[in-house]
Amino acid sequence: MAKRSVALVARYRLTPWWVKVVVIFVASRVVTTIIMTSFAARQDANPWTGPKPDYFDFAAIWDGHWYYIISAVGYPWTLPMTADGRVAENAWAFMPAYPAVVRFFMQLTGQGFPVVAVGVSVAFSLAAALMFYKLMHLALPGGTALFAVVLFCAAPLSPILQVSYAEPMHLLLLTLALYLLVQRRYWLLIPVVAVMSLTRPSGLAFALTMLLHVGYRWWLQRPTARDREEFALRDRVASISVGLFSAFSGVAWLLIAWAVTGSITAYTDTELAWRAAYIGDGQLVPFTAWVSATAFWAPWFGMSQPLLLVLLVIIVAGFFAVLLSPWARRIGVDLRFWIASYALYLLAVFFPQSSLFRLLMPLFPALGVLALPKSTTYRLLLVALCIAGQWAWVQFGWWVDGQDWTPP
After folding, report:
1. At CA 280, angle to CA 277 and CA 284, rounded to 5?
2. What GO molecular function terms would the record report (predicted)?
3. How far apart are CA 396 and CA 148, in angstroms?
4. What's the pLDDT tens digit per position in 93-131?
5. pLDDT score for 229
6. Nearest to 162 by CA among 115, 201, 130, 198
7. Residues facing 81 on adjacent strands
8. Is the pTM higher than 0.85?
9. Residue 83 confidence (pLDDT)
10. pLDDT-based confidence at 284, cuts 50/70/90?
11. Is residue 362 within 8 Å of residue 174, measured between CB atoms?
């Protein structure tokens, strides 16, 4: 028995890392598919499907329908308007890279949108899991990096990895971009950032990451720096160029929407159309949406707006304080720059509502911090909580129960 155990341990250690990641990914998809199909079997007729839809139709609801529209007919040349004269919800809120890939494979295979979209998302998700291990292993031991992958695949929002949303494609591109940044292979970042910024809004956040990265490397080259590091001219030129390109990529979709529709505010007006359901018409003023949200959400939480605002400040301050902790430092400074930059981006432009959990997914490098404790009990409990979180998210976010008024 002991010899067999030793043999199994030896065989596991000799197993290539990518095989371990694939096994983790497949096992996690089995669990998530069981959860999703159990809800699909109880799903009533809704705006997108009839009762008891199959898995693929169930996975193509909500924003998946917008991606279907884009893959089928593209974007409107004229912005649709509501009866009261404001821009209505429309396809310009969704970027073109993911539906373009889906359309390509629809034409290649002859299959319909639901099947192809799910297949494309799963393929991107597997690639993202493999790339995430490579990223984590730059800073963490192999076993810890592998458990970070477990958390990535089992996270409460991981059903998104196998539905017709752009997140899987974006997660792959973001993981690749962060890997190249940590490796300081700057010029290779340009095509990755270009496609990434046309998959999900991320160019401006990555530009801030590059600004922090350049400033940090400049600081380290000082003669008095404790961990002195040369910042060669070629690296300065390359990193600054990537930062400027990222900033341009962050506004490229706004410029494209302007060029096509003739309205300079086409994209921002479209995004604000979703916010109007909560607080009515308004302008996009950076860092004010979260304050406005406290007035909307305070009654839901049974507290006053000032108290909710104080709670929000404490949560935000605590979040950034954790990034300075010894545990967070284990994942490296560049990943922490990204986490901080993306969090600031959300605080600047996003109105917090039910999609917030999904929009937090690009903070996934923080899973490396959660993966640090080696206690078996801790790890098993954390995975169990993640799986329970999947069920809760599908129950309250994805499943259509007739009382839904906000998207997942």
Report:
1. 105
2. alpha-1,6-mannosyltransferase activity; GPI mannosyltransferase activity
3. 26
4. 999 999 999 999 999 999 999 999 999 999 999 999 999
5. 78
6. 115
7. 87
8. yes
9. 86
10. confident
11. yes
* Predicted pLDDT at 281: 77
* CA–CA gap between residue 250 and residue 112 (Å, rounded): 32
Structure tokens at 316: 């935000």
Q: What is the CA radius of gyration of the chain?
A: 22
What is the full DSSP assignment across 70-89?
HHHH---SS--B-TTSSBPP
287: exposed, middle or buried (Cβ count in 10 Å: 0-12, 13-18, 19+): exposed
Angle, helices 233-261/203-220, rounded to nearest 10 degrees:
160
Residue range 233-264, pLDDT digits in tens = 999 999 999 999 999 999 999 999 999 999 99
Look at the alpha carbons of 212, 196, 368, 348 in this order and tell me if their dihedral is positive or negative.
positive
- Check residue 352 and report its DSSP letter: P
Residues 60, 42: Cα–Cα separation, whole Å: 16
Residue 77 has pLDDT above 90, yes or no: yes
Who contacts 367 (Cβ-Cβ below 8 Å, separation ≥6)? 148, 151, 152, 155
DSSP per position, 196-235: HHTTSS-HHHHHHHHHHHHHHHHHHTSTT-TT-----HHH
Query: What secondary structure letter does DSSP report for 397?
Result: I
Q: For residue range 22-51, list pLDDT tens digits in order.
A: 999 999 999 999 999 999 999 999 999 999
Q: Distance of CA 164 to CAs 65, 123, 308, Å?
A: 8, 12, 34
Helix axes 167-183, 113-137, angle to 10 degrees: 20
Average pLDDT over residues 384-388: 98
CB 348 within 8 A of CB 400: no
As a whole number of angstroms, the distance between CA 269 and CA 285 comes to 12
Q: What is the DSSP string of 230-280?
A: ---HHHHHHHHHHHHHHHHHHHHHHHHHHHHHS-TTHHHHHHHHHHHHHH-
DSSP states of 107-152: HHH---HHHHHHHHHHHHHHHHHHHHHHHHHTTS-HHHHHHHHHHH
